[in-house]
Specification:
By secondary structure, the protein is of the alpha+beta class. The chain has one domain. Helices cover 26% and strands 22% of the residues. It contains four helices and six strands. The protein has a six-stranded antiparallel sheet, with helices on both faces. A hairpin with a 4-residue loop joins β5 and β6. The chain is globular and about 35 Å long.
């Protein structure tokens, strides 16, 4: 990916909720421990950057071990998305917090944490276990302003 930075991964889970709008209506973010204080502004900045360049974003489905992972990234990141996921699943980066990615792409793993969504807030890309219900309206939903509160 163009000058990819070390990933800073925010875990999450898709959960459709009717009582909120925007990204909050489809996504619940996990607590990421010691980095929680700094992550929150970083998440807002990443969402703003994605919204500013939303027309440059596309969906790419990548076979990753036992799962199909959808990557939501800029067109300039497509060529490197497969290697990015392979490196992440092989734990090639020393991430500041546990990402739970490798556990969730292996369908035989007993230790799945329930995470089905990951947001790399350093590189402004998102990826998730393929979800045909969410994807058709994803760009519209994340472009809609919300209070963007953390839900625990």
């Amino acid at each position: 990916m163009n000058e990819i930075k070390e990933p800073f991964i925010q875990r999450g889970k898709f959960e459709v909720r009717d009582n909120v709008v925007g990204i909050d209506s489809i996504l619940v973010l996990d607590y990421v421990g010691s980095y929680n204080r700094i992550e929150w502004n970083d998440i807002r900045v990443s969402l703003e950057r994605i919204r500013e360049m939303i027309d440059e974003y596309t969906f790419l489905d990548v076979d990753c071990e036992d799962r199909v992972i959808t990557v939501f990234c800029r067109d300039t990141q497509i060529d490197h998305a497969r290697q990015y996921l392979a490196d992440l699943s092989a734990n090639k980066w020393h991430l500041p917090e546990y990402d739970d990615f490798d556990n969730n792409i292996d369908q035989e793993n007993k230790f799945k944490g329930g995470t089905d969504f990951w947001w790399d807030i350093s590189n402004h890309l998102m990826f998730w276990i393929k979800n045909d219900e969410i994807e058709p309206n994803f760009k519209t939903v994340i472009s809609t302003n919300s209070a963007f509160k953390k839900h625990t």
